[in-house]
Design goal:
This protein is of the alpha+beta class and 250 residues long. It is built from 5 helices and 10 strands, in the order βββββββββααααβα. It has helices at 127-130, 151-163, 169-177, 184-190, 199-221, and strands at 5-8, 11-12, 19-20, 23-26, 42-43, 71-76, 80-85, 95-101, 112-117, 192-193. The strands form 4 sheets. A 3-stranded mixed beta sheet has the order 5-9-6, covered by helices on one side. A hairpin with a 6-residue loop joins β2 (11-12) and β3. The termini are far apart.
C-alpha cells in the first residue's frame, strides 16, 4: 500500500448465510532516509562555475561603489527519480516513487552551491586590498566615524555573505532546504499518483512538486544577508575605500 485509507472485505457466513463487511483503518507511514542533505558551499575561481553552475557566475571586476558585487553565489538544484505502480491489493495501479537522488537527470551533475569572491580580496598584495586600511574603531566608533574596514575583514565578511552558515546565502539555502516541506527528497518520497493517470502525467505531477519546492529554496537563498562590511551580528566594521581616488574613507 502507498496511501492511507479504509480497507474492507465481504465475508459470507456459509452457504446461503448472511454476509458481513468488516473494515479496518490503515495508515501508511512515510519511508525514512529520503531527505536530501545540504551540499557544501564550493568556492570557485572568478567567473568559473562548474557543473550545474556552468556559465552562471560572472567575472567580477574591482568594486567601485557600494552597488558593486564583492562576491556572487550560484545555487542549482538537481534531481533524478524512479517510480513504479502497485500490483495488486487495495492500492492496485497507484503510482509511487521508488528512489530519488540529487543528481540532475539530464546531464548527471549533482545539486551545486558555488560562490566566488572578487580577486582583489583573494590577494592581500592587491591595491584594493591594501587600501582597506582598517582605521574604523569598532569598539569606539566616535574616534574615527569615517574610518575604513580592513582588507582582512572585508575578505572574511564577503565569504560570510556568500557562504556563511549565519547571515550568508549558503545559510539561507541550508535552512530552507532542510525544511521537510521544501526538501526535494522528502517530497519525492511522498508523491502518490492515482491509477487513472498515465505515467507521463504522474511524472509531470512529481516534477511540478519538485520544481515548486526548488523555486522556494532559491527564493530563500537569494534573501540578502548583512552587507560585506558588517559582521554576522550586523556590527558595522568600517567603510569601503573605492578606486580610483581611494578617498571614500579615511
Amino acid at each position: 500500500m502507498v496511501t492511507s485509507g479504509t480497507v474492507s472485505v465481504k465475508v459470507s457466513l456459509g452457504v446461503g448465510g448472511n454476509s458481513q463487511t468488516p473494515t479496518a483503518n490503515v495508515t501508511v507511514n512515510l519511508r525514512t532516509g529520503w531527505a536530501f542533505n545540504s551540499v557544501s558551499p564550493q568556492k570557485v575561481a572568478n567567473g568559473s562555475g562548474t557543473g550545474l553552475c556552468t556559465g552562471l557566475l560572472p567575472v567580477l571586476p574591482t568594486p567601485t561603489s557600494n552597488s558593486s558585487d564583492f562576491g556572487q553565489f550560484c545555487y542549482q538544484g538537481g534531481w533524478t527519480y524512479h517510480f513504479s505502480q502497485v500490483s495488486g491489493g487495495p492500492n492496485n495501479g497507484y503510482y509511487y516513487t521508488t528512489s530519488v537522488s540529487n543528481v540532475d537527470g539530464a546531464n548527471g551533475n549533482p545539486t551545486a552551491f558555488q560562490w566566488e569572491r572578487v580577486p582583489d580580496l583573494d590577494n592581500a598584495s592587491s591595491t584594493f586590498y591594501m587600501e582597506q586600511t582598517g582605521t574604523y574603531n569598532v569598539s569606539n566608533p566616535s574616534t574615527g566615524p569615517n574610518g575604513c574596514v580592513s582588507g582582512s575583514n572585508l575578505a572574511t565578511q564577503t565569504q560570510r555573505h556568500e557562504a556563511g552558515s549565519v547571515q550568508g546565502h549558503w545559510g539561507n539555502y541550508n535552512n530552507s532546504q532542510n525544511q521537510s516541506s521544501n526538501n526535494l527528497g522528502v517530497l519525492a518520497e511522498a508523491q502518490v499518483g492515482l491509477p487513472t493517470l498515465t505515467s507521463n502525467q504522474y511524472q509531470a505531477q512529481v516534477d511540478n512538486a519538485l520544481q515548486s519546492a526548488n523555486s522556494t529554496i532559491l527564493t530563500a537563498t537569494q534573501v540578502q544577508p548583512y552587507p560585506v562590511n558588517d559582521d554576522q551580528n550586523g556590527t558595522f566594521l568600517g567603510f569601503v575605500n573605492f578606486p580610483p581616488a581611494y578617498t571614500s574613507c579615511k
